[in-house]
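About this split. The held-out portion is used to measure sequence recovery: a designer receives only the structure tokens and must propose an amino acid at every position. Recovery is the fraction of positions where the proposal matches the reference. Here is one held-out target exactly as it appears in the evaluation file.
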């Protein structure tokens, strides 16, 4: 007996980094092991909302990301791994839901406002598809009647919109029949947001990440560049592993927001982090050997993922078969939901449509 069904996806960005792992993938694998029914979607249509101009890398990015999912431990026997655009019912449900949501409601979605700010977009030129991407997310979730959606704090408003759409649909079309859609629950994922190695927001385009597929040598080279405490110049200088709140910038943020190497120790070396901090503070640990020790820990931790990934990468046909099978399983669930939706709305069923 499964605990419930979860739906979660990622935009295909190619090879994944540690931030993707800590922020989502690690949790997906844990939920799979705990006996949830996992549906994981490569959100390629979502990718187009902000990246429709150059799609030349889309298929290779999908393939590399799926390899990382499998490498991280998603088990295709237990988890449905599929590509959004291979299940056309997402588009149909998105269209039907788009009648139920006002433009003003979509403009209030906080993540849309953040994207406009972060990507320096002009609000007047934002596309119809981009404005409606949270409606597409609602269709993604409700198509599978997911009972739970694992999300970070920033995605909670999307699940709230999904619940509103489910309620509205059930209210309008299910007065004389059982409700079609459950109202999915938020399953809050608590994870420390990992900074990039340079101390800034982690981003592959900046090159401040560690990829899950990096070799031990690549990891060591990347960790060598990590931001530490700029005041710890000699090995015996006492260091500041954590943020120093005694020196703030004009906006009230600490000038030294903490050593990134220590931040990674806390996440990936929970047993040893307190001792690292103690030795650093009293000047008995130097940054160079500490970076080497962190790089070794990360490389050891990522070895099973990298090796499993390499085994799948050696057999691309197997990977394609896994995705094709996931697409088939997803389509079967999606089509059953759509038949209920069409019947509730007085539309023709798929069998009537082909007559
Ligand atoms: S010794 Fe380690 S924790 Fe201390 S500043 Fe250097 S890298 Fe950071």
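Reference sequence for scoring:
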């Amino acid at each position: 007996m499964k605990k419930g069904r979860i739906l979660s996806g990622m935009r295909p960005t190619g090879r994944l980094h540690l931030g993707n792992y800590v922020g989502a993938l690690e949790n997906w694998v844990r939920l799979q092991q705990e006996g949830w029914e996992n549906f994981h979607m490569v959100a390629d249509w979502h990718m187009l909302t902000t990246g429709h101009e150059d799609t030349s890398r889309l298929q290779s990015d999908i393939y590399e990301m799926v390899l990382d999912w499998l490498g991280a431990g998603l088990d295709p026997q237990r988890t449905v791994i599929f590509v959004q655009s291979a299940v056309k019912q997402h588009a149909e449900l998105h269209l039907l839901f788009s009648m139920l949501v006002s433009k003003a409601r979509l403009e209030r979605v906080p993540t849309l406002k953040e994207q406009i700010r972060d990507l320096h977009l002009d609000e007047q030129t934002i596309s119809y598809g981009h404005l409606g991407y949270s409606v597409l997310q609602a269709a993604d979730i409700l198509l599978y009647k997911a009972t739970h959606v694992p999300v970070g704090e920033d995605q909670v408003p999307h699940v709230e919109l999904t619940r509103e759409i489910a309620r509205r649909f059930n209210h309008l079309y299910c007065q004389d029949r059982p409700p079609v859609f459950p109202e999915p629950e938020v399953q809050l994922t608590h994870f420390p947001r990992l900074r990039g190695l340079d101390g800034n927001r982690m981003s592959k385009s900046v090159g401040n990440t560690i990829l899950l597929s990096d070799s031990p040598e690549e990891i060591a080279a990347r960790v060598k560049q990590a931001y530490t405490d700029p005041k710890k110049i000699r090995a015996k200088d006492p260091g500041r592993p954590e943020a120093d709140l005694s020196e703030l910038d004009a906006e009230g943020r600490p000038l030294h927001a903490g050593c990134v190497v220590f931040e990674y120790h806390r996440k990936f070396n929970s047993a040893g982090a307190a001792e690292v901090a103690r030795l650093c503070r009293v000047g008995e640990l130097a940054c160079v050997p500490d970076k080497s020790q962190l790089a070794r820990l990360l490389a050891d931790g990522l070895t099973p993922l990298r090796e499993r990934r390499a085994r799948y990468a050696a057999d691309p046909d197997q990977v394609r078969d896994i995705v094709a099978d996931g697409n088939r399983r997803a389509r079967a669930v999606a089509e059953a939901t759509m038949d209920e939706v069409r019947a509730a709305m007085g539309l023709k069923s798929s069998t009537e449509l082909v007559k």
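Annotator remark: Residues 5-194+316-353 form a domain with the Rossmann fold fold (CATH 3.40.50.620).
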